[in-house]
Amino acid sequence: MTRLQFTRRRVVLGAAAAVGGSWVWPAGAQDGDIIVGQSAPLSGPVAMAFQPPLAGERLALEEINRKGGINGRRIRLVLLDDAYDTQRTVENVRQLVEQEKVVALTGLGSTAGVAAILPYIAEKRVPLVGIYTGAHVLRLRHHPYLFTSQASFKDEVEHQLRTLVTLKMTRVGVAYQDNEFGKLMMPVVEAAAKELGATLVASAPLAIDGSTSVQAATALSQARPMAVLLIAVGPSVVGFVKAAKAGLNVPIYSLSVAASAVPALGADARGLAMTQVVPYPWRLVHPMARDFHREAAAADVPVNYNSYGGYLGARFLIEALRRAAPNITPDNIVRAIQGIRGWELGGNPLNFSPTNHHGSNWVEITIVGPDGRFLR
């Protein structure tokens, strides 16, 4: 098989080709392939934010398939577009389970979409191995078939607020995305602020396309916060940060999911504080980081948190499949993940058990420096 080239243009074209149908990778699927399914927003308001992690996933899958797959079996990913729409996510998952006969799902990105499919995958006994949403509500109750490898948004918010309280910046405003994601997060922010001794002086909703950014920044400025938490992803991050730089002028702390907005922000990204749930991609002491840099360089994929997060997410999936071999079934995958103890995903130790399906709560804060570089 010829090596695929993952330039930014190729990723965009690959995503566009998948809209309305399925994107099966690698091409030329064979009998005996290990079939895994994914529903992700290849179109719609947050499509651009998902291109880097999808590119990272493909690097890891191409790498393992080039080396012979799992016990000689290639991993075949069937990716369906959900346009960040909950109903389409549900329909896609049903198609993947009932028609494609996947042994596992991976990389779902919508909080509402994941919540909607949890009863279904429990009924069908199909594991969801890794998600691109850190929503705490998805982790409140033990689910027998949901596994995560990254800290939750609650972990991120608590880390941000704990840092602000330590810095004596206790008057905090919140700009939150005006959709299920933002609305589900607001009670989490309120509870964490109360517990940690911060005062939420104001909150303002943000349209997902960023069109209400100026209004949100203006509303928050009237409450005179000492810092602002930004609970958003995609275009609204760009719009709000630019509006806040012009009219609010206080530190902004964003969640890790906002990292994809840094290139679009340009110079306005400088000084933005951002929690990270993925290890620092440029720290090459860990073998996975070195593997990622080698694969990314060969495929012309930019090295950043989102592409590395996608790569690590796929490596988590690959490890689960490897441990479940040779008889790779949904139930064996579940048992394999539950047996993981102290296994390092890019330097982040994961620990699971039959009663703990969320392998990490590790978080750190980075600052965006000159030229969009992240500083630890």
Written description of the protein model:
It is a single chain. This protein has helices at 8-18, 47-66, 86-98, 111-124, 153-166, 180-196, 213-221, 235-247, 262-265, 287-299, 305-324, 330-338, and strands spanning 22-25, 34-40, 75-81, 104-105, 128-129, 146-147, 171-177, 199-206, 227-231, 252-254, 273-276, 341-345, 348-351, 364-368, 374-375. It has 376 residues and is of the alpha/beta class. The strands form four sheets. It has a seven-stranded mixed β-sheet with strand order 8-7-9-10-11-14-15, with helices on both faces. A four-stranded mixed β-sheet has the order 1-3-2-4, with helices on both faces. Helix 8 (235-247) links the parallel strand 9 and strand 10. The protein is globular.
For this entry, give a set of tags:
single chain; about 375 residues; alpha/beta; 2 domains; 4-stranded mixed beta sheet; 12 helices; about 20% strand; disordered N terminus
Strand order, sheet with most strands: 8-7-9-10-11-14-15
The CATH homologous superfamily of the largest domain is termed Response regulator
Q: How confident is the prediction overall: mean pLDDT? A: 91
Number of separate strands:
15
Question: Low-confidence spans: pLDDT under 50, at least 5 residues?
Answer: 1-21
Largest sheet: 7 strands, mixed
Gap between N and C termini: 40 Å
Radius of gyration: 20 Å
Structural class: alpha/beta
Count of distinct structural domains: 2
Shape: globular
